[in-house]
Amino acid sequence: MALEDVCSFKERSVQHKWFSFSSLGDAAIPFPMSDHYNLRYSRLETSENNCGVPLPFRLAHGTTTLGFIFQGGVIAAADTRASAGGLVACPAVHKITPIHSHLVVTSSGSGADCMLWERILIREIRLYQLRHGHRLSIRATAKLLSSMLHPFKGTEMCVALTLCGWDKQEGLIYVCSDGARLQGDVFSVGSGSPYAYGVLDRELRWSLSKGEAISLAREAVFRATHRDAYSGNNVDLFHITAQGWIIVVIWYKKPHKQLYSCRN
Predict the structure, then answer these.
(1) pTM assigned to the model
(2) Among 18, 192, 207, 212, who pairs with 64 as Cys (CB 3.0-4.6 Å)?
(3) Candidates 63, 80, 97, 106; catalytic one
(4) Per-run averaged pLDDT (10 residues), the chain, 264 residues
(5) 18: Cβ contacts below 8 Å, ≥ 6 apart
(6) Calpha distance 29→17 (Å, rounded)
(7) Domain at 88, CATH number
(8) Do strands 103-109 and 87-90 pair parallel, antiparallel, or not at all (unpaired)?
(9) 63 catalytically annotated
(10) Residue 204: domain span
């Protein structure tokens, strides 16, 4: 009882509701999920709120991630600072995660939530590929992720992922934790996104060369980290084409070079 008083635990009435959705739109076969996530998620409805234990204080967090399409493919960029209020929790966090050889996601929101759902997405896509012999398309992947996240709308979960990849052409889709799904040519997400959009709106165009696109993405994230206290440290850059994704490292006063790639 003493522990319950200290931790502010209270008995809550719990009701279970189940969520299901139809087969994915552009998948030829209904998508079978793994046994643990069999297209159904239980959602907890409480008489008070969705947060069991109130936090002693709110830890604000922020980031700067972006993705855009140009004639040479898709560019994804993000800073590497993980923040918790005024604390820099980690200066070297990778906010761009490869899902498969032609798809990466940029993540913003709660670090633990983003890592969990990225792992779930990687597993489900891999299982689909093993069952059917081909990869799930980017649009179907976004629909799958949106359908899995929608039951958690209104909870404390905070996930915002931008899918940057290549199927038969470039693909850029934004999915967040309330189930929203948006497709576009440019997205910037996070507390530093207004500053990044300021640079992108001025310089972004379809006819950019590879070098110009990489420099623009780096400049946009750098300017955002300069103005936004929650973003900072280094800039991660990915370039996705029909051959796969490439991690790009830019040396000061030297041309960019390829560090690592994943191709067929």
Answers:
(1) 0.75
(2) 192
(3) 63
(4) 45 40 47 44 41 58 91 95 84 93 94 93 94 94 94 89 92 93 95 95 95 95 91 93 88 50 56
(5) 40, 41, 42
(6) 27
(7) 3.60.20.10
(8) unpaired
(9) yes
(10) 60-263
